[in-house]
Amino acid sequence: MNQDSAATSARLLALADGMGGHAHGEVASTVAVTAFLDLAGRLADTDLSGVDLLEKLSEAIEDASARLTALADAEPEMRGTGTTVVAFLVDGTRIGVLHIGDSRAYLLRDGELTRMTRDHTLVQALVDEGRISVEEAAEHPRRSWLIRTLQDGTVAEPDLFEHQGQIGDRYLICSDGVTAVLGDNEIREVLAGEPERAGAVAKLIERANAGGGPDNITCIVADLVEESAPTEQVPLIVGAAAEQAGGT
């Protein structure tokens, strides 16, 4: 079952990867993405120039946490449900970023790839402490153990930061179905070599599947372009959230 959910709109990019091996990960990812879509809907007619983007993202993840907790209280089999989250709230070239878990965000600028997020995993913590090397981390048997997620009954502790974009920047948000297989060099090659966003997404998925595809694979590729004003659009929703809404 696909436990990933993702959505995009004029002002929002959001991706959630329900925790595999836990109860109803597909529900958790759907709840998370829906909370962020609701945020985008509330802000649809708002001038964001004076808005604290990080405060709004914090409100959305608190809302998602409350929804998960309410579900678990009503349905005991939902206890332990959790998900990763990466979300961008966009105001022109000003971007608020929220991240929790091991889904990732990348920036491609002038041909150089930068990882914008830091994995909330046991292995990443060991790397940060200097106890193992990056090379050892890639092969560590516990490399997928998460130490921070959005989960029922707990207070979410996401990383939050504001990013100043530039016209021409390309962004990738992806679940670990991509990064468990593809290294940063291969990701950079695809993002830099495929001019069309859909082509870049297709190639990343193709290469991840060719490398073994051990998990659900979900990608968002977005380009920062110059527009006079944001054009609101019907959100594009994929994965578990689309399935639960009766989409395809």
UniProtKB/TrEMBL annotation:
Single GO molecular function: protein serine/threonine phosphatase activity
Domain of life of the source: Bacteria
Residue ranges constituting the PPM-type phosphatase domain according to the UniProt record: 1-224
Protein name stated in the entry: Protein phosphatase
Organism of derivation: Pseudonocardia thermophila
